[in-house]
Design brief:
197 residues, alpha+beta, Trna Endonuclease, Chain: A, domain 1, four-stranded mixed sheet, three-stranded antiparallel sheet, 7 helices, 31% helix, 20% strand
């Protein structure tokens, strides 16, 4: 009876084994040889640790697109840890078709100006094939690397009265009915408002 009590008190978590699949491990080994210290290879990085949502209170529905999702490998600069490449293992469907998830990942990385390398799932990998895929991904990004997020225009304004984050609101009545504005998140205690022209 005591053993059952102890078991019931234990937290219901166990170590996941293996941490990487055979496919992921095979690719990790090839990537390690290829980058030879030029990048740090971080496996299974959560997307919400890499990307943030612009004006989150206005774009709540975009949260689920990245919540609980990860990129298979993120190659980072060894000094600054700035992301340099994403690497995603993909299961091929057909030559002209790609999964919706793969399309979204490509759009996400491209919008951020970060190359994403899609590598077909395999038990073994050839480094020369992977180098070609890296070159193709960098070419695809092209000029979009300059499209890094403009934090001033993409962020939520701070309340001019109390300094807290503001929330997008809409006038419900009166002459401004239907028009959006930013109101302090601490409203009605704080009357801070920023009009949207």
């Amino acid at each position: 009876m005591t053993d059952l009590k102890v078991e019931a008190q234990r937290l219901p978590y166990r170590l996941r084994e293996p941490f990487m699949t055979t496919t992921e491990l095979a690719l990790f080994r090839v990537l390690t040889q290829m980058v030879a210290g030029r990048y740090l290879i971080c496996p299974k990085v959560a997307l919400n640790d890499v990307f943030y949502i612009v004006r989150p209170n206005e774009n709540v529905h975009f949260f689920n697109k990245i919540f609980r999702k990860h990129v298979d490998f993120l190659l980072c600069d060894p000094q600054s840890f700035a992301p340099a490449f994403g690497v995603e293992i993909v299961k091929p469907i057909s030559k002209n078709d790609t999964r919706e998830t793969d399309k979204f990942m490509q759009e996400l990385f491209t919008e951020a100006g970060l190359p994403l390398i899609h590598i077909p799932s395999s038990e073994t990998y050839d480094s020369s094939d992977i180098v070609s895929l890296f070159q193709l991904a960098v070419t695809k990004i092209g000029g979009t690397a300059a499209m890094r997020v403009n934090r001033t225009s993409d962020s939520v304004p701070q309340c001019p009265v109390c300094g807290k984050m503001m929330v997008l609101r809409m006038h419900r009545e009166g002459p401004k009915s239907g028009r959006k504005y930013y109101g302090c998140m601490d409203s009605p205690r704080c009357a801070g408002v920023i009009a949207i022209e």
